[in-house]
Amino acid sequence: MFSSFLPEILTKAVLESGDSISILDSNTILKYWSAPSSSNNLNKSIGLNFKDCVHPKDKDRVHNILQSALNKKTEKIAEYRLKNSMGEYRWVDSNIVNMLHDANINGLILKTSDITEKIVLQARQKRVIRYYESLFQNYPDALFRVDAEGKIREINNGALMLFGYSKKKTIGNYFWNLVGPADREQAKEQFLKAIKGEAVSFQILLVQKDGSDYGLKITMVPVILKGRVIRVQGIVQKPSDLTSNSKNATDSSTFENLTEGFFSLNETWNYTYVNDVCADFLQRSKNELLNKNIFKCFPHLRVSIFKENCQRVFETGMSVNFYEYYAERKLTLHCTISRTETGLAIHFTDATEKLINQENISKLHMVANKITNGVMILDEHKNVQWVNASFEQITGYKSRTFLGKPLNNLLPQGSILNKRSFMKLLVMLKLSKPFSEDVHLFTGYGTEAWLTCSISPVIEEGESPDYYIVVLADVTSRKEAELDLVKHAEELFKQNRDLGQFTYIVSHNIRAPIAAALGCNNLLASVDKNDPEFDDIVKGLNHSLLKLDKVVRDMNTILSVRDRAQKDIKIPINLLEKCREVYNDIKELMTFTSADFRVEIPEDYEVCINSAYIYSIFYNLITNAIKYKSPDRKLTIKVSAHVDMNKDLILKIEDNGIGIDLEQHRNRLFKLYSRLNHELPGDGIGLFLVKTQVEALGGKIEVSSRLNEGTCFTIKLNTDS
């Protein structure tokens, strides 16, 4: 079964993924290996131990991970060397899936990716960085590097000696603070030119501690990456050290660290400097280019946008940025040309992919404007770059109010109802992960809406997204239908629960007094009116009828709460006054029990709520506290109210009474005619009525209690404050 099952499934997986697929048995013997036709494979190694194909220096680590994989569902072997069919070691990553339990496979499946180019590139980058840092610190010229804000991020010993400051005082300090007060404005102005893409040179006067002074020449050259100035390179020299041939900004080999092409020309159009990236791109050695005329090396440039822009920079001294198609390589280059003292400094990058992406974005804009969903594009800084017309129609907000602003500033304050989901959306956006969430908000039309907000990061180069696509779909109708369904389900649950309660009432509380009344009635027919027993039977009959009447009135009270819940008009009431009203009605009972009654409700706090229900809730819970007071201590009752962060009203009625054994009675606590203490008077309807009224108000009630310590009822109500 192994041979017939695997090729069809795994070969298809290999062709689609571009990775190699292998299967090892429990002894790590290679049973199967398949790879795309474009890569080397190990088919000739079938039957050998997989570890024998691993580089000796990685063998122990790989062996340990393979042994671990025998007892796990998945495992990974990161960055190890594996020999291919040509006998060459290649750097790879392998993901392992344990399928020993599967009768068709009975082995460990390894999905292996070749990462040799990535490892080589990383090593090269590390060498370049080490080389550059060493060059920067030991270069004979005085060098410093300034970030886009003007703060010094690196400075070598030569520059420290000329400026006369310690490294501690320079790193993180603004560049212009290192020069004399008289030249600071000039230094700042020259930096602003450099950060805009222009190479500049200027002289300053530096005053020493002993009062003497000397002049310095500073040259600042912009470092450009992907068409944007990311920092400024500075060279500091004493005028006496300057020579006409060797000391200028474009000669410095520090430009070898740039990831874009860089070269310089003198006024006779000869190359005076070429970095490695430029030489590789032009497919010429540096010796073939240096001191040679650019138009003799590349005659097609005699008639080009490049030459026109070079001449413009020579004439005006102003830097230019432009795109030009390079036919020989079928690439579009983005070029920046800046004036130097001896000629021109030219940076260039391959912008082909960028222009294609811009074209794709333009097409996306065109399509997005035709669909009914709202579409928004955020730049790499998560600022709103573009929205379609449907976005404005759905949200009710005009694009001019939020273009260029972060997503979290998108909607006016107070417009979001579901803040938890919106905050989750912002967190996922920060993590650059795809995300979809329903968001509840107020629209610009003054209405409420539910929107499904989906965010997709678009990563073109590197690890961070270049932009984000946000799609909004109006799901208000669906969401309202779902909420109605949930509401109806809750109502149905309550009705079923109540039906069970009423069934209990009919079968017990109504049936019992009716049966007793019928029995008394039957006895009356057989007993003489003058018989003393006759009066006792009549009394029994009356008692049964009174009990029946009480049950019917209780049911009527409960049903009226349900019926009036939607009909009663809620008016603003002062919560403290309502609590005092209850206290005054039971004042004699409070005095008789010598209870300590404490109220912590703000005097001016008003809520829109059913006045009769809130009175009944206070009354039942406070009188319950009195009824179940402890004989061992003075009764203390505390009533408090506050509004939580969700603007819900939280009521608490606490006492230090005999408490409730919740482990035994929690499930019976709020049931109709459920009495927890038969030694005390009561009919078992109070707590059931409180719970019914709380739920009719759209709230919840909870209880916490300990025997011989006390009880606390907590009520949460959603009110219009």
Written overview of the protein:
- With 721 residues, the protein is an alpha+beta fold.
- It has 20 helices and 27 strands.
- The strands form six sheets. It has a five-stranded antiparallel beta sheet with strand order 2-1-5-4-3, with helices on both faces. A five-stranded antiparallel beta sheet has the order 7-6-10-9-8. It has a five-stranded antiparallel beta sheet with strand order 12-11-15-14-13, with helices on both faces.
- Helix 14 runs antiparallel to helix 15 and helix 16 (575-585) crosses helix 18 (611-627).
- The protein starts with a helix and ends with a strand.
- Residues 1-16 and 241-254 have low confidence and may be disordered.
In short:
With 721 residues, the chain is an alpha+beta fold.
List keywords for this structure.
721 residues, alpha+beta, 38% helix
Rg, Å, rounded? 42 Å
Major β-sheet, in short?
A: 5 strands, antiparallel
Overall geometry: elongated
Low-confidence stretches: 1-16, 241-254
CA distance, first residue to last residue? 72 Å
Give the arrangement of secondary structure elements:
Layout (H helix, E strand, L loop, with lengths): L1 H16 L2 E5 L5 E5 L21 H14 L4 E10 L5 E11 L7 E8 L1 H23 L3 E6 L4 E4 L1 H7 L3 H4 L13 H12 L4 E8 L5 E13 L2 E10 L23 E6 L4 E4 L1 H7 L3 H4 L4 H4 L7 H12 L3 E7 L4 E9 L3 E8 L1 H17 L5 E6 L4 E4 L1 H7 L23 H12 L4 E8 L5 E11 L8 E8 L1 H49 L7 H33 L6 E4 H11 L1 H7 L2 E5 L5 E4 L1 H17 L8 E8 L4 E8 L6 H4 L20 H11 L3 E7 L3 E9 L3
Parallel strand pairs: 22-24
Antiparallel strand pairs: 1-2, 1-5, 3-4, 4-5, 6-7, 6-10, 8-9, 9-10, 11-12, 11-15, 13-14, 14-15, 16-17, 16-20, 18-19, 19-20, 21-23, 24-25, 25-27, 26-27
Helix pairs in contact: 14-15, 15-20, 16-18, 18-20
